[in-house]
Specification:
Shape: globular
Order of helices and strands: EHEHHHEHEHE
Distance between the termini: 21 Å
Structural class: alpha/beta
Mean pLDDT: 92
Number of strands: 5
Number of helices: 6
Strand order of the largest sheet: 4-3-2-1-5
């Protein structure tokens, strides 16, 4: 049973950071947490074209301070590796990975699941959190 399923759909650097850090902290506290990457979040993992919201640009230094405070890696792929080492399961759906042509280019820590498997995870999750 999944305690918390986090859906990450935006290619926003601060969104990845919030979603993955919440997943890491949740896993460290004993929760079964999984992260699903959809749409532009999955594509951006391949082309490394992340953005930051214009509203948060003035706070970029504060975001960097938070990453250091919690000993998070500087880059997103490093954060994905940290989440994986913590035991956070991460995945995307074949619909997005095949349709967008990114299947073989995704980080190895991200599983590619059939739609029936994705639906099973959604059905079994106690709580689902959209992009954070």
């Amino acid at each position: 049973m999944i305690d918390l399923l986090i859906i990450c759909r935006d290619a926003l650097l601060h969104s990845y950071l919030a979603n993955l850090s919440l997943a890491i902290f949740g896993k460290e506290s004993g929760m079964n947490v999984e992260v699903m990457f959809t749409q532009e979040a999955a594509v951006a993992l391949v082309n490394k074209n992340y953005r930051i919201s214009p509203l948060l640009e003035p706070y970029l230094n504060k975001i960097e301070e938070l990453k250091k405070k919690f000993d998070f890696p500087e880059d997103l792929i490093g954060l994905i590796e940290k989440a994986d080492k913590t035991g956070v399961k991460m995945f995307t759906c074949t619909i997005w990975s095949v349709h967008m042509g990114i299947r073989e280019k995704l980080p190895k820590e991200i599983d590619i699941l059939e739609i029936s498997e994705v639906l099973g995870k959604i059905k079994d999750a106690k709580k689902i959190l959209g992009t954070f």
